[in-house]
Design brief:
Blueprint (H helix, E strand, L loop, with lengths): L29 H27 L3 E6 L2 H4 L1 H16 L3 E6 L2 H10 L6 E2 L2 E2 L3 H25 L4 E6 L5 E8 L6 E12 L1 H9 L3 E9 L5 E3 L2 H12 L3 E6 L17 E3 H9 L7 H13 L4 E6 L5 H6 L7 E4 L4
Parallel strand pairs: 1-2, 1-10, 2-8, 5-8, 10-12, 11-13
Antiparallel strand pairs: 3-4, 6-7, 8-9, 12-13
Length: 328
Amino acid sequence: MCALMPSITPSMTAGGSAPREARTINTETHEEIIAMDELAVRARTLSEALPYIREFSGGTFVVKYGGSAMASASLSQAVMADVVLLRLVGVRVVLVHGGGPQVSDLMRRLGKEPTFVRGQRVTDAETMEIAEMVLAGKINKDIAAKIQMAGGQAVGLSGRDAGLIQARRRVMDSPEGPVDLGFVGQIESINAGLLSSLTEDGFIPVVCSIAGGADGECYNINADHAAGRIAAALHAEKLLSLTDVRGLLRDRSDPASLIARLTVSEAEALVREGQVEGGMVPKLESCVDAVKAGTAKAHIVDGRIEHALLMEVFTDAGIGTMVVPDGP
């Protein structure tokens, strides 16, 4: 049987213990070798992260939170921990969320079947009331509470608060003609000053995808578009969008076909040519909008992976798709 044996050295104290630097290991068990390997990996990880921490400390990240990362308790906990860690190393974080599945669930429980046109929710007055209840009243406050439990200081906000997100009624174009989606909004402006004031004071704003209008109405807006416009308004260093796939794939049936890097022009071409569909369209559009407006880089990251945010931001390789400005 292997045992740990301290070497007898002149620095041994009278009580039989040695200072840490004077102790040597003659023999090691398999478990101890594994433990040392794990410590070495952690040390390398911290060393690799240091230049990125230096680069981004004092900057702003906008995180779009949704998908499996919101539905799973363990993944949700990991995201909150990542967000708080980013704040602790000096990054100003704004978290933007939707909650479409939860809105649909409550609608069905109330006997109202959701209706969609080309992926957009048709939002009558009753649906709008339900959406605001779920997004601003339930999910938003739950996320803020989770951040508090993880050690951060969060402030839950609706786009209607202090004119944070102003929108107008959106009419969708279709081959059959204009489609009125009801209380679905097109974003017109962002109150960046409110968010900047909160982040400067150490708070983490948590923003739901509800907007106000000049007409006093309430509008349902796409959370991806909201995150992109907020990142643009804040001139954020990064927009990070959590999704349920590895990132943007060349072949949607092949997870190994990840596109690790795209320029704005390449991303716009993919959307224009119909090579991107479904929920990935607004995600890619929000990345393009943010980068065009001055956000340095936008990322689409697999939210099913614990601590995906940290792996994308603080490692050399990253794990998702990054959208960058045109040029060298």
